[in-house]
């Protein structure tokens, strides 16, 4: 017993050492980006900035926030994230409830049809041609409508609903409740953990998405997203001189000083990641419990 206790203690020591090292390896890029974002642009070019800015300044954030294109892109990103999350969450949960009902005789083929879409895809070119024929390209709704129902999220919510006691639904039916009433008053409140999990999936996916903005609205700056603007900044390494002049003029217009593409990219990265970082702690407990229960119950 003494030898077992010692081995457990050694295991715990190595476990905590590994977790601490893993945490440091995860946090370092974030802290380094923060340090560069709050450091003077010209001073950052010298290198040697690790966890703390050497010359503190807010000029990089002034340069980012003074660009009208970024402010408009931020509005589009927030709008698509909120609208897509609410609409997709409600419609996916409603369809999941329908497919969980035994009285719906077509629930199996419909479920298989959605599963089929998870493994096969027509490809980018047919998808673009299809959306173009529907008139969704060069519009805001191309961010919302094509991904209105996610097969993966549908299966997660449906699996969770299967774990809800059927007696609750039967009691509501005896009391005369309709399916809409059951779904709204019983199913949705009991599915709060899995709904929060799916909402986090959708919100993060919408907020971080940039490829659809480039593909469908690449020539319309009014419909550009914040992540697409960040991508353009991150890919501007080959033209750093021109971007430095542009950012310098923007910073001087806002009362700031010299900035560089490196420091502005760091500041833009922080600005784009901040909303999700602030949102995640409030949904963390639902994220863990919803994902676990939804994946186990059947």
Write a brief structural summary:
With 298 residues, the protein is mainly α. The chain is 73% helix and 0% strand. The protein has a single domain, classed as MetI-like (MetI-like fold).
**SSE topology string:** HHHHHHHHHHHHHH
Helix content: over 70%
Task: Assign an overall shape.
Answer: globular
Give the count of structural domains. 1
Tell me how many strands there are: 0
Q: How many helix segments?
A: 14
Low-confidence spans: pLDDT under 50, at least 5 residues? Answer: 237-244, 246-256, 294-298
Report, as a whole number of angstroms, the end-to-end distance: 40 Å
What is the name of the CATH class? Mainly Alpha
**Main beta sheet: strand number and arrangement?**
none
The CATH architecture category equals Orthogonal Bundle
CATH superfamily: MetI-like
Under CATH, the topology can be stated as MetI-like fold
Our Rg estimate from Cα atoms comes to 25 Å
Fraction in beta strands: under 5%
Transmembrane segments: 12-31, 74-98, 110-128, 140-161, 182-204, 264-283
Domain ABC transmembrane type-1: 74-283
Protein name: ABC transmembrane type-1 domain-containing protein
Subcellular location: Cell membrane
């Amino acid at each position: 017993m003494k030898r077992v206790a010692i081995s457990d203690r050694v295991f715990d020591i190595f476990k905590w050492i590994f977790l601490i090292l893993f945490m440091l390896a995860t946090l370092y890029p974030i802290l380094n980006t923060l340090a560069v974002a709050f450091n003077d642009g010209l001073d950052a070019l010298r290198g040697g900035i690790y966890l703390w800015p050497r010359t503190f300044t807010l000029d990089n954030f002034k340069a980012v926030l003074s660009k009208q294109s970024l402010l408009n892109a931020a509005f589009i990103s927030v709008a698509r994230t909120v609208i897509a999350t609410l609409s997709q969450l409600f419609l996916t949960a409603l369809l999941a409830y329908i497919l969980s009902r035994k009285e719906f005789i077509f629930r199996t083929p419909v479920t298989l049809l959605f599963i089929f879409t998870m493994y096969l895809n027509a490809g980018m070119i047919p998808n673009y041609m299809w959306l173009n024929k529907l008139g969704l390209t060069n519009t805001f709704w191309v961010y919302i409508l094509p991904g209105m129902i996610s097969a993966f999220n549908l299966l997660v919510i449906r699996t969770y609903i299967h774990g809800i006691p059927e007696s609750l639904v039967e009691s509501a039916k005896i009391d005369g409740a309709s399916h809409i009433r059951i779904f709204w008053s019983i199913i949705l409140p009991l599915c709060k953990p899995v709904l929060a999990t799916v909402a986090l999936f959708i919100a993060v996916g919408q907020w971080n998405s940039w490829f659809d903005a480039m593909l469908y609205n690449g020539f319309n700056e009014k419909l550009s997203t914040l992540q697409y603007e960040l991508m353009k900044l991150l890919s501007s390494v080959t033209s750093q001189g021109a971007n430095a002049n542009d950012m310098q003029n923007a910073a001087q217009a806002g009362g700031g000083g010299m900035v560089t593409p490196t420091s502005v990219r760091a500041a833009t990265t922080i600005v784009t990641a901040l909303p999700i970082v602030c949102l995640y702690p409030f949904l963390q407990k639902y994220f863990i419990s919803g994902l676990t229960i939804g994946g186990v119950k059947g």
